[in-house]
């Protein structure tokens, strides 16, 4: 039986729950990943921060697209919003709806959890609940495809080694 650990990603990004909003913004989440896990002091995942959570912290909750269309672009409003948000922490802005899978779970369980929750990635934890990695939708599709696809594994081909993506 193939183990989750053979297909999971271990290069996940995380922050401590007391990480400041300013630090989160300076990390440039868009360039490192589309999300970061929020960990407690024992490395247990307690939340997730995506660019959506950052936007929610930066845009006033009373502002919607219709009202924004009527307002002039004003840097002062942006500065005021950032000034309010900069005092927040990762715990303040994180989403706590975080489905977890264990290194002992099956691919079927992981796949159905993604379908049930629409999560892009599932944090993988050890038997003590500590974050070890993540299983993304792409990892699950790659695993399932590797069992049924007659094509050879194309990872590590010459084009990818020289930094150019291959389009087939």
From TrEMBL:
Pfam families given in the database record: CBS
Species lineage: Bacteria, Pseudomonadati, Thermodesulfobacteriota, Desulfovibrionia, Desulfovibrionales
Classification via PANTHER family: CBS DOMAIN-CONTAINING PROTEIN CBSX3, MITOCHONDRIAL, REGULATORY PROTEIN
Organism from which the protein derives: Desulfohalobium retbaense (strain ATCC 49708 / DSM 5692 / JCM 16813 / HR100)
Protein name in UniProt: CBS domain containing membrane protein
Keywords attached to this entry: CBS domain
Annotated CBS domain residues: 8-65, 94-151
Gene3D superfamilies: CBS-domain
Iron in keyword set: no
Superkingdom of the organism of origin: Bacteria
């Amino acid at each position: 039986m193939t183990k989750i650990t053979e297909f999971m990603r271990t290069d996940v990004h995380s922050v401590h729950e007391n990480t400041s909003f300013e630090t989160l913004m300076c990390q440039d989440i868009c360039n490192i990943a589309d999300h970061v896990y929020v960990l407690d002091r024992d490395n247990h995942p307690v939340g997730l921060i995506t660019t959506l959570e950052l936007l929610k912290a930066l845009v006033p909750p009373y502002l919607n697209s219709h009202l924004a269309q009527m307002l002039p672009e004003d840097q002062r409003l942006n500065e005021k919003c950032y000034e309010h948000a900069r005092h927040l922490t990762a715990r303040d802005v994180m989403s706590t709806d975080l489905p977890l899978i264990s290194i002992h779970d099956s691919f079927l369980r992981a796949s159905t959890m993604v379908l049930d929750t629409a999560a892009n990635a599932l944090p993988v934890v050890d038997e003590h609940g500590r974050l070890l990695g993540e299983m993304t939708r792409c990892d699950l599709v790659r695993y399932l495809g590797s069992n049924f696809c007659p094509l050879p594994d194309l990872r590590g081909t010459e084009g990818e080694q020289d930094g150019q993506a291959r389009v087939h």
